[in-house]
Amino acid sequence: MTDSAVESVDILIIGAGPVGMTLHLALAAGGQTSLLLDRRPPAALQADPRALALSHGARELLEQIRSWPSRAATPIETIHISQKDGFGRTLIDRTDYRLPALGYVVRYRDLATALAGNLQADSLLPEAEILNIEADADGATVSLRHGGQLRILRCKLLVHAEGTPGDDPAISVSDYGQHAVICEVRPTPGHDNRAWERFTPDGPLALLPLGDEYSIVFTLPPSKADAVMALDDDAFVAALQNQFGRRMTFANPGKRSRFPLALRMRDTLVKGSEVWIGNTAQTLHPVSGQGFNLGLRDAWQLAERLLRNRATPATLADYAASRHLDRQGGAFFTDKIVKAFSNDIAPLKLARGLGLLALDICPPARHFVAKRMIWGARAWP
Prior knowledge:
This protein has helices spanning 18-29, 56-64, 108-116, 222-230, 233-244, 291-308, 313-322, 324-341, 346-361, 363-375; strands spanning 6-14, 35-37, 51-55, 74-76, 78-83, 89-93, 103-107, 124-125, 129-136, 139-146, 149-160, 171-188, 194-200, 203-210, 213-220, 249-251, 257-266, 270-271, 274-276, 282-283. The protein is an alpha+beta fold. Among the domains are: 3-49 and 119-169 and 264-329, FAD/NAD(P)-binding domain, CATH 3.50.50; 80-88 and 172-261, 2-Layer Sandwich (D-Amino Acid Oxidase, Chain A, domain 2).
């Protein structure tokens, strides 16, 4: 292989999911070129069953790169937070923040389509099998197979945005012993653009308005998740009803999917000429819908740093430092909520009820939590 066979790019992004595409488009908006690689065919994004809870802050970012899927987004106007078989509740309302919505629920495939529609034809290499990565102080060399051809790419900066990592000694893992069962159900009466976060001893139950339905995130211990996945539709609705209560009824459940839940935190975001963003940098519990929004902020803040300065060690170190509060705050917030609420211990149930009641009757505390969910670390004093 001669030197002439090596292709040069400024910034190489591995992973063309929404976080990777957001980074690419944010860079392009500022005149910086980058190349996206993805091991999947473009059609694979359309098969993803997830619904994403996007904060209003995420909408503000995506609108700047003309990638907000307005027709596919269902607004969340209120959020009702409570615990099963316990007192105390908190209601968060968009009108307190003079916003059109606290957040939005969008199918993964619709967001991916909105972003992909803004890509240039030559900015993505799909179905790229990465064979080797060699990083050094001046950049990285990536060997891959694409379209049956061996290609070697040399970049000044390599960004990892390929999703939840496998085993990696650089990642600390805390297994919650919970699985999320997800599906869509039809509520009666209608959802009225209200999201619910219902804490149960098995784990949180989230109901997110999506079109005329609710997207359900049903958190359970693995053995109970096995049982719930095996139920017929009527029995599944009964199990869901038992966890949620009788404020509304459910029908017509869609196809169910499941995935295990763990907190994964990469020890360092930057190593030489490599940077990690999105789920490959941190994967959070889905409670309060923080993880994906955190990944979008990763992409946006990295783009801001790279558009102001070249990808020098100082620039990358500054980026890593700038993400510390948001990452650690998001991980701490979700982790402590899950551990405090996923049990049936009487003293903790009392404390949780008092905490929910305090949030409801103390606007400054409630606003702090709400703004943290909407804008991330920008809401912190």
